[in-house]
Design goal:
The complex is a heterodimer of chains A (345) and B (457). Chain A is of the alpha/beta class and 345 residues long. Chain A is built from 15 helices and 14 strands. In chain A, strand 4 and strand 5 form a beta hairpin. The chains are: A alpha/beta (345), B mainly alpha (457).
């Protein structure tokens, strides 16, 4: 058994990191009202160096959230508006024949993917061929064009948005593409109080002006701190059981999973949970991951990785709902209390 | 070996104390102890229920077949105590590992991973974190033993019912009745032996006959068994009567011989001597001399009575004393009830009828013609309990010869076929039933030609 012998983060380092993160989160909460959970998930995924797919109806602030994040972080930001006629080279870039000192030669023109923070707006409007241009970039953080592999600048995040209700002229993301997103965040509507707040504080819905609160170096320090967050073995065991239980053939799978899930999560899902849970723990000012962080990030990390049966749609079961049932069914500690003992609530 | 820097969680497992903050040590210990108790309480009810069921079955068997175990059955209520040992062994074998205890402490006390982290990483900088202090003061899980003990209740009820069941008494079968039949015979034979009124050969023969009667009664308990016992008793009574008669005759002959004086010239004395000799031979044949003094037996074996007066007087005195004793012993034999009559079955109480003594005065005994007026009416001739449901062979059946068959009655059913009867005649015969209109219909003139054409060849 390999034992992690690295020292824990000291309280000062954790406090500093928490403060930095809190500045980003607070600024985002000022821009996007009433979306605390969404913001927490996006920031946790960011700290885990993962890509995020924001799904929600039009006008709920998905794009605005990413734009606000780009303004808060002093890192390079590009936006690609995905359309049906978008080509892969429009994303990755291409070689263009140029006249250089009287000679014709190909010069590489980098596409918008060569950035730190990429907003892939309405990603499901592009064809699968174009969507596939992001596969290598998202996983390997590099791009291969004409046999030449070029690394992308680090950090590299893809924050994509898509509309779940428009089916005409859209191309659903393939499973391989979905699996590369650390989180799929469902952006829900807002309640009356939030609407009232927006109407009274925003003119034409314009968000407040933001100033950068974190540069690339600060972000890198945060990443280092996230990597130092400790995950106890029992918590890792819980995560692995949770992910394993998404497979219908697993002995731990609850009945709903057996009935409605065709394929469970890949190991990438467990890795995503671990990375995001570390970020969330640091966001909460903890040097370690607890069971609660796992429960918090698991729905966002796993819901889009489940391949559901057709009957699930008929019965009204979504990935999120299945994850809720899964978390209810899988105990945090593998060996629970004896039957004659009852935990106090 | 445990040092000062170790926290004992279970019997054979420890977690280094420097890995667990000092504030957590008490709750980890108490949690571990409670888990061990919980494991025991998990295992105990199953074993206790098993022990109670086994004890209940044992109690049931004892109630049915082992009456002697009655005073000890209440000890079976202590059967759950036997389950303590296996339950304890099982709970020790299933004991939680230290990592599992810490994971439970962390998950159930709000440790939020901090307890586990500090146990895995040696870092006291976080030992005063809020999660640690929250976990240190968290409430332990509460006991809910009744969840598992519900399975004990039916098993305990089964045992209590089995223990409280009335003891089954064995019903009288053929064996006790057979013993009853021969018990009187055996007692009479013993009485005869005690009075030296039976020779070893007679005793052996009687024993064999008694045993034969007993076996016959065991195999088939009916009137023949009683009659066989009756015959044996009559035989014993006849033997005793023969001995008594021989003794009486010998006493009378001895008295006449003594009165005659025993002189050789006296004709009365000679006849008295001859009679005495015959009486003594008869006495010897009857076996009544088996217990006589040796000198008398020697003299009688020689077949010669003393001729002198002194010896004769001495013999007469000794013989008279012996015969008197023998008569007394014969009179003392109680087994014949003072008479050598037919065997009375009423002396033997049948099963369930209580004591046979004084049965003649018991209301309801003796049949309808002999019971008292206020007695419960019985009809006599009732079957003995052993015979009540006894199979009875019926006489063999026989097949009737076909020659014996005779018709009982002739049923009018077969149709009488009369091909000579014309259709018209038959139609007339059934005209009442078939309807007049159908037959007597006349053809219309316009149809007659068509019908004729049809029937014409």
């Amino acid at each position: 058994m390999i034992t992690d012998t690295r020292p824990l983060l000291d309280p000062d380092a954790v406090g500093t990191a928490q403060t930095s993160i809190a500045r980003v989160v607070d600024a985002l909460r000022r821009v996007i009202l009433g979306k605390e959970d969404t913001i927490d998930e996006v920031v946790a995924a960011l700290l885990g160096r993962g890509h995020v797919l924001l799904e929600g109806l039009p006008g709920l602030g998905k794009t605005e959230l990413v734009k606000a994040l780009s303004r808060l972080l002093s890192i390079d930001f590009r936006r690609i508006q995905f359309t049906p006629d978008l080509l892969p080279t429009d994303i990755t870039g291409s070689h263009i024949l140029q006249d250089v000192d009287g000679r014709k030669e190909f010069a590489f023109h980098a596409g918008p993917v060569f950035t730190n923070l990429l907003l892939a707006d309405e990603i499901n409007r592009a064809s699968p061929k174009t969507q596939a241009a992001l596969l290598e970039a998202m996983q390997e953080r590099r791009v291969t064009i004409f046999g030449e592999t070029r690394p992308l600048p680090l950090p590299f995040f893809v924050l994509a948005t898509q509309n779940p209700i428009e089916l005409e002229g859209t191309y659903p993301l393939p499973e391989a593409q979905l699996d590369r997103f650390m989180f799929k965040v469902d952006v829900a509507g807002v309640d009356r109080a939030v609407l009232e707040e927006i109407l009274t504080t925003r003119v034409h819905g314009e968000p407040p002006v933001l100033t950068p609160v974190l540069d690339a170096a600060g972000l890198q320090r945060l990443f280092d701190a996230v990597d130092a967050v400790h995950m106890p073995r029992a918590v890792a065991n819980y995560t692995s059981r949770l992910v394993a239980a998404t497979h219908p053939e697993s002995s731990d799978a609850p009945p709903q999973v057996r009935q409605f899930v065709k394929y469970g999560s890949s190991p990438r899902g467990a890795i995503a949970i671990g990375a995001a849970a570390r970020g969330l723990a640091l966001m909460r000012g903890k040097p370690n991951v607890g069971f609660d962080e796992i429960r918090r990030v698991a729905p966002a990390a796993l819901s889009h990785r489940l391949v559901l049966d057709y009957s699930a749609r008929l019965e009204g079961w979504t990935g999120r709902r299945l994850l809720a049932a899964l978390i209810e069914a899988v105990p945090a500690v593998e060996r629970g209390l004896p039957q004659t003992l009852e935990a106090r609530t | 070996m445990l040092g000062d820097n170790s926290v004992r969680l279970a019997d054979d497992s420890t977690v280094p104390a420097d890995r667990v903050p000092a504030s957590l040590i008490p709750i980890v210990r108490r949690f571990s102890r409670r888990l061990r108790i919980g494991l025991f309480l998990d295992a105990f009810p199953q074993w206790a229920a098993g022990a109670l069921l086994a004890a209940g079955c044992a109690a049931l068997v004892c109630r049915l077949f082992v009456p002697a175990a009655d005073p000890y059955l209440f000890w079976l209520l202590a059967a759950p105590a036997l389950a303590i040992l296996p339950a304890a062994v099982l709970s020790i074998r299933r004991a939680y590992r230290p990592e599992e205890v810490l994971a439970l402490v962390d998950a159930l006390t709000g440790g939020d991973g901090a307890v586990l982290t500090l146990a895995e990483r040696h870092d006291q900088a976080w030992s005063h974190a809020s999660q640690i202090s929250r976990a240190a003061h968290a409430a332990l899980p509460r006991f809910r033993p009744w969840r598992r003990f519900t399975i004990v209740v039916p098993a305990l009820a089964f045992l209590v019912i089995a223990v409280l069941l009335p003891q089954r008494t064995p019903t009288a079968g053929p064996l006790p009745i057979a013993d009853d039949v021969v018990s009187g015979l055996s007692a009479t034979l013993k009485e005869l032996q005690s009075h030296d009124l039976v020779t070893p050969e007679e005793e052996k023969q009687l024993q064999q006959e008694i045993e034969r009667v007993r076996k016959a009664a065991q195999e088939r308990m009916d009137a023949s068994a009683w009659e066989a016992a009756d015959a044996v008793k009559e035989k014993m009574a006849a033997n005793a009567a023969a001995k008594r008669d021989a003794a009486s005759w010998a006493q009378e002959a001895l008295a006449r011989y003594s009165a005659a004086g025993g002189s050789a010239g006296n004709p009365d004395a000679a006849s008295a001597k001859a009679e005495l000799s015959k009486a003594l031979e008869a006495l010897a044949r009857s076996g009544a001399l088996a217990g006589a003094p040796l000198d008398i037996q020697k003299m009688l074996a020689a077949g010669k009575l003393p001729g002198d007066a002194a010896s004769l007087g001495k013999l007469a005195a000794a013989l008279g004393q012996y015969l008197g004793d023998a008569q007394g012993r014969l009179g003392d034999v109680q087994g014949f009830g003072g008479r050598a009559s037919r065997f009375d079955p009423s002396e033997f109480a049948a099963a369930g009828e209580g004591d046979g003594a004084g049965a003649g005065n018991t209301p309801g005994r003796g049949g309808i013609t002999r019971g008292r007026a206020d007695a419960k009416l019985t009809y006599g001739q009732e079957s003995l309990p052993a015979e009540r449901f006894k199979a009875q062979a019926l006489p063999p059946g026989y097949v009737r010869s076909p020659d014996d068959w005779a018709p009982v009655v002739n049923m009018p059913g077969a149709p009488i076929v009369a091909p000579e009867a014309s259709g018209r005649a038959a139609a007339r015969a059934y005209a009442e039933d078939a309807g007049q209109a159908a037959w007597r219909r006349t053809l219309a003139p316009r149809h007659q030609s068509a019908v004729k054409k049809y029937f014409k060849p």
